[in-house]
Design goal:
By secondary structure, the chain is an alpha+beta fold. Among the domains are: 90 residues, no CATH class; 145 residues, 2-Layer Sandwich (Alpha-Beta Plaits); 184 residues, OB fold (Dihydrolipoamide Acetyltransferase, E2P) (Beta Barrel); 129 residues, no CATH class. The chain is 29% helix and 19% strand. The protein is globular. The structure holds S-adenosylmethionine. The site of S-adenosylmethionine has 22 residues, from helix 14, strand 20 and helix 16. Belongs to the class I-like SAM-binding methyltransferase superfamily. RNA M5U methyltransferase family. This is Zinc finger CCCH domain-containing protein 24.
């Protein structure tokens, strides 16, 4: 084989470099360092989009990557490459082959064209099938069918009605009224006459607005269920921003209070079914789903290698794991496989059903058919979604039937008015044998129903009556089934916010359910908070209404045990369980470590964690309530910076009563919550606050755990398992983990591989001896950066510290039939 053209391996073409890379500085001009630096740079500057391709001589033609990337040398020189026909890269578009994952070289015309088509399809989907509004929007006196109403699609989401009106006026257009809700890409405009409509369509259809979005002006047509129905009444509640127009209200055949809809024409044709929206992989076999997820995770993981390579400071050698990535197809570490879910159907122990109008205009309890931002408010029953249990479906149906006769309106997402908003069904299982796994329903022992309402502007007496009636319907609905469905608790959550995502402290009221038929509303202070129970690794977990608990319990068990195996645990291990929820990870691993410190911001979840330690007799766990970014620094300091000798440290904890809490929380009161404020741990117990350390210490001594578990005990092995929400870890948490040199091993569990990649870029990219100061200042471009780009940017200001390296990764499928998957990565240094 001929030699590679030298420029290919040593000086990559410019289009393979990050143009923001500064020139290579040389801090140490000694000959040896120059050699190393140059070598590192040479390695670093190898062609980047082809990490899968080894730099060894060209592979034989049957190699899977043969001709899957364009030869940049050939392109730059206008067609001359010394490899000639044996070059492994494609000489021109015609020679280019698809990659094994069916994608094309991203620099090729073909890939660019496909990207453009995909983008166009997305827009068309939003314009056509995407807009399924079944909520009434009050707009001034025009019937949608008059032809004088138009729907504008692709408006900037941040625009309000005022912005839309200003925009129309700036274009010199005449109109009667305009309505636009922030957070949606659609707006509605009413015109005085056909001439105004004609001019507006001519001027605006296809015009560029905002960030290169192409404006589409569509007709507003009534939904099928509205045809033949005249608008009847105005909405009782004015819309939020004070506009009160009346363009589209219409009654429907089923409902007394008559919701209507606004629909751009064509939308009826292309709507997705609830099954396609909620479980888009359900049409594949389970084995194909697993392959699909693994491939897609591999693609995402490769971004870690590429971005860490780019972020590696000039003058610093690329770490081994980046150099070795070429041997494993560009991955940062081996992706060992995907663990399947023990249960593939009906596995969800928690379902949040929206309340809204179906495409046929019927009040429905189920799932939204798309994204509200894109104008979808239609809701469809969950019956066809394979991830939902029969019990959850049954309760959704009972609630839906109740709504037919309720005095109160369902929630209207466009006007933010109404009463009934959401039903959450949470299920708890008894510990199940393998045979019961096959028949999951038989193992469901407890059910908690949480109904979200908005009580604002409704009468208290009527509310009480309605909720009591609902409780009776649920009670009857559960007993008519054979065997009867479990019904453990009914909780009413009051929430006035615009989206249904209520904060954890949204007010709750508990409804006492008497199976004989009597139901009563109880105030939160009067009764114990209702909870359900589930089992993981033979431990019993008590779960309060708002606490996070993995939705697929049996698969979560596998996730936790894998994480424990990878964390390298032992009696001398101090385990930080970051974002611990109800304590599931720390508690299931507590018997394998010296001590667990759990951190969680949701106070109810922390109380649950403490209670869970207590009911399982676990004494080596401490749970701290606070945002990880606020507390992790002081906790790490507390555990990892104190003097080595036991006696010195005991003295210290006695003297600093309010500063250090050496408490085994598992034996403290179930109602007590530990909070950290201003880096001090303050006790909150039954409402009172302040330094209760001595009391707790007395308790501890009584229970005989103080000697064995103290914060000053020195643990040889310090490990963190982090399990953050979708957004990933806060930058402060990343910095603490990275700069705490005693933390040698980190297991990252992620439900969102994008944020894992972003966080791992910061954790694994080598830092400079001297941090680049002020890289984040005055940089307003961050808003448009990808999460990986932002992470690269932040990595530049990471204090000098030993980076972690990705060691291995494994996926665990907690969400069959959906594209989602948990990913576990072991990082070490
Ligand atoms: C994905 S859940 C994991 C919970 C737990 N590890 C489990 O498996 O059940 C993420 C948890 O992080 C908590 N959380 C979110 N942001 C947080 C923050 N800034 N600090 C601490 N906890 C946070 C949430 O309340 C939630 O309980």
């Amino acid at each position: 084989m001929p030699e590679s053209p030298p420029t290919k391996t040593l000086n990559p073409p410019m289009d393979h470099q990050d143009s923001s890379d500064p020139p290579v500085p040389s801090e140490d001009p000694s000959p040896s360092s120059l050699v190393d630096t140059n070598l590192a740079e040479k390695r670093k500057r190898e062609p980047e989009p082809d990490p899968e391709i080894s730099s060894d001589p060209a592979p034989p033609p049957q190699h899977p990557l043969w001709k899957t990337s364009l030869c940049s040398y050939f392109r730059r020189t206008g067609g001359s490459c010394s490899h000639g026909e044996s070059c492994r890269y494609a000489h021109g578009e015609a020679e280019l082959r698809p990659r094994p994952d069916h994608t094309w070289d991203p620099t090729s015309e073909r890939a660019k064209k496909m990207a453009r088509t995909e983008e166009k399809e997305k827009v068309e989907e939003a314009e056509d099938g995407g807009i399924m509004m079944t909520d009434a929007l009050d707009v001034e006196g025009e019937e949608p069918s008059s032809g004088l109403s138009k729907c504008f699609v692709n408006l900037p989401m941040k625009w309000s009605s005022d912005n839309l009106r200003n925009f129309l006026s700036e274009q010199g257009l005449l109109f009667k009224s305009a309505k636009k809700k922030k957070g949606m890409i659609v707006g509605f405009v009413n015109f005085e006459n056909a001439e105004q409509v004609k001019i507006a369509v001519k001027e605006l259809d296809g015009k560029s607005v905002g960030n290169n979005r192409t404006l589409k002006v569509a007709d507003v047509i009534p939904r099928p269920f509205e045809k033949n129905n005249k608008p009847t009444h105005k909405s009782e509640n004015p819309s939020l921003d004070g506009d009160h127009m009346n363009m589209t209200e219409a009654t429907n055949n089923d409902e007394a209070d008559g919701d209507g809809s606004l629909v751009p024409s064509g939308s009826v044709v292309k709507c997705k079914s609830v099954r396609d929206v909620v479980t888009p992989l359900a049409h594949m076999t389970y084995s194909d789903q697993l392959d699909h997820k693994k491939n897609s995770l591999a693609q995402t993981l490769k971004r870690l290698t590429r971005n860490a390579r780019k972020a590696c400071p000039n003058g610093v050698s690329l770490p081994e794991w980046i150099l070795n990535s070429r041997e494993i197809g560009g991955l940062p570490c081996k992706l060992e496989g995907i663990i399947e879910s023990p249960l593939v159907n009906g596995y969800r122990n928690k379902c949040e059903f929206s309340v809204g109008c179906s495409l046929q205009g019927k009040h429905t309890v189920g799932f939204l058919l798309g994204n509200f931002r894109e104008g979808v408010t239609a809701v469809q029953e969950p019956l066809d979604c394979p991830n939902v249990s029969r019990i959850a479906c049954r309760y959704a149906t009972v609630f839906q039937e109740f709504l037919l006769h309720s005095l109160f309106p369902v929630w209207n997402r466009l006007n933010n008015t109404g009463f009934w908003r959401q039903l959450t069904v949470r299920e708890g299982r008894r510990p199940c044998t393998m045979t019961e796994v096959e028949k999951p329903e038989t193992s469901i022992a407890e059910v908690m129903l949480i109904v979200q309402v908005c009580t604002k502007d409704f009468d208290d007496g009527q509310i009480k009556d309605e909720i009591e009636r609902l409780a009776r319907e649920f009670s009857v609905g559960s007993t008519v089934e054979s065997p009867p469905l479990p019904l453990t608790a009914l909780v009413i959550q009051d929430h006035t916010g615009i989206s249904n995502a209520a904060p954890p402290d949204a007010p709750l009221r508990y409804v006492f359910i008497n199976k004989g038929g009597d139901c009563g509303l109880e105030l939160a202070n009067d009764v114990a908070e209702p909870r359900i129970h589930d089992y993981i690794s033979n431990l019993r977990f008590s779960i309060s209404p708002s606490a996070f608990f993995q939705v697929n319990t049996l698969a979560a068990e596998k996730l936790y045990s894998l994480s424990g195996d990878w964390a390298g645990l032992g009696p001398d291990t101090l385990l930080f369980d970051v974002c611990c929820g109800t304590g599931t990870i720390g508690l299931t691993l507590a018997h394998r470590v010296g001590m667990v410190v759990g951190i969680e911001m949701n106070a109810s979840a922390v109380s649950d964690a403490q209670r869970n330690a207590e009911i399982n007799g676990i004494k080596n766990c401490r749970f701290v309530c606070g945002k990880a970014e606020d507390v992790i620094g002081s906790l790490m300091k507390e555990y990892l910076s104190l003097p080595h000798k036991q006696d010195e440290s005991s003295e210290m904890s006695e003297n600093k009563e309010s500063e250090v809490v050496s408490v085994d929380r598992s034996i403290s009161s179930a109602d007590s919550v530990t909070r950290i404020e201003d880096n001090l741990i303050v006790e909150h117990e039954n409402g009172s606050s302040a330094g209760k350390c001595s009391k707790d210490e007395a308790q501890l001594q009584k229970h005989g755990t103080l000697e064995s578990i103290t914060p000053v005990q020195q643990f040889k092995n310090v490990v963190a398992i982090v399990d953050p929400p979708r957004v990933g870890l806060h930058p402060t948490v990343i910095k603490v983990l990275r700069t705490q040199s005693r933390l040698r091993r980190l297991v990252y569990i992620s439900c969102n591989p994008e944020s894992l990649v972003a966080n791992a870029i910061e954790l694994c990219t080598p830092s400079l001896d001297k941090t680049e100061k002020g890289t984040n200042k005055n940089n307003r471009g961050w808003k448009n950066m990808s999460s990986a780009g932002l992470a690269r940017h932040r990595a530049k200001s990471m204090p000098n510290s030993e980076p972690f390296k990705p060691v291995k990764a494994m996926a665990v499928d907690l969400f069959p039939h959906t594209p989602h998957c948990e990913l576990v990565m072991l990082l070490e240094r």
